[in-house]
Amino acid sequence: MKVLRHACEGAFIGGICDWYAILKVYRKVEEHHETLAAEVSETVIEDMIRPEEAVAELRDRLTDPSFAREVVARVQTLVPDTRAVQTFLEDAWRDSLRGRVLSWLVELDPRENLRTAGGGPLGNAAIRAGVHHGLAYAVARPELAGRLYGAMIARFGDRVVWDKLLVTITLERLVRGWFTADDLRERLVDAVERSLGPDQGPEHPASGQLMQVGRDYLVAYVEGWHAMSVADRREAAGALLDAVTPQLFAALSGAVWEQREHLGALVAQDLPLDAHPLVDFLEERIGELYQEQLEMLDERSQALLTDKLTSMGPAELREMLERRTRTELDWIQVNGAVLGAVLGAAVGAATLVM
Question: Which of 33, 84, 287, 302 is at a distance of 20 to 30 A from 241, taking alpha carbons?
Answer without folding.
Answer: 84
